[in-house]
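Retro notes, item 3 of 5
We never archived the inputs for the nicotinamide-adenine-dinucleotide complex last cycle. Fixing that now. Sequence and ligand:
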Amino acid sequence: MAVRQSSLENLERQSLRYLSNFYKGKKVLLTGDSGFKGSWLAICLKELGAEVFGYSLPPKSKKDNFVVTDLSSKIEHRDGDVRDFPGFLKYADNIQPDIAFHLAAQPLVLESYTDPRYTFETNVMGTVNFLEITRLVKSIKAAVNVTSDKCYHNNEWLWGYRENDPMGGKDPYSASKGASEIVTASYKASFFSDINNAAIASARAGNVIGGGDWAEFRIVPDFFRALETKKQLSLRYPEATRPWQHVLEPLGGYLLLGAKLLERGQSFSGGWNFGPRDVNNYSVQKLVEALISAAGKGSFIVPEDAERKHEASLLKLDISKANHLLGWSPVLDFKQTIQFVVDGYLGETSGEDVYGLRVKQIKEYMNIGSENKLVYLT
Ligand SMILES: NC(=O)c1ccc[n+]([C@@H]2O[C@H](COP(=O)([O-])OP(=O)(O)OC[C@H]3O[C@@H](n4cnc5c(N)ncnc54)[C@H](O)[C@@H]3O)[C@@H](O)[C@H]2O)c1
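Structure as it came back at the time:
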């Protein structure tokens, strides 16, 4: 046990060096940079010294993280559609990136019921186009496709899903993410198995939360919208349990995975789970109660006739693989997660420079990681 622990600590120290040294000067293609997770990832990459080239649809609103952090003045960005293969390929070919992260997607379950065709086109054909580009643009030596915990066939198990469990998905969004995984596995087996090819992997995480997300139909943005308008928040699924994570947690995993893929190749390809610790699985109602307590304001109601379309009621990720092979671990406990979220949102309206606020949180996150000796990012 002592030997295993010490080898894990060595791995973590190694991981630490990867992130601080690895991305400096690397050219990174990033789809979905105008979105919530993509904009945070762009900031992390920029702060690590990478040259970031974003490709996505324009931001949806002036409140989006991409806009409030003035990201377009800090990275290269091109408005584009991942379904437009020639345009996407031309952009990537001009850049000649070293590494690529694919986060562009239609990410909402409810929206996928309204527009399943768009969801499948973007999430499945968008993935095909991303992998084709990885195949054709020879400079790309590592690629990470970001999917979701919802890619798994959900048996409503109490235990966590492992990377080799079957893919599935009942609602169109979940099915599109399961399909994106199957496409990635097919490309890996068919085109990327040779040592000289790019190494490709997929990354699965659960619900992430943090300042800068103003998407519709998500509980945390809904909470802060209700605060702004001084309305009561109505909970659609109060008992649904979700693995809540601050957005920085999986992003650290993606960065670490990208670095290992580029450096160590095929041995790191395949699927990876980046979920929270088990203790961060809380119901929607508990999450909202914690937000109210940390913000010192807000209220909610649970309507009796809440509409209930199919949505998985429990889904946990087993993170042993990322923990043992990448040295990755979640850093924040539930209370710290909530505090980061509240500071991230309330800071946006305090007049503070929002890019600076995000960087401050990234640094704070790293410090907590070091103090906890759970460091994988510093
Ligand atoms: N936010 C979460 O809780 C969560 C949980 C699990 C998985 N994910 C996954 O993480 C990724 C990012 O999610 P997010 O929460 O940042 O979503 P988001 O809606 O904030 O951002 C989506 C990004 O994709 C881009 N995009 C959408 N359709 C596009 C198209 N056709 N062509 C080009 N760009 C397009 C948007 O412009 C935006 O930049 C997605 O793959 C999502 O499925 C998110």
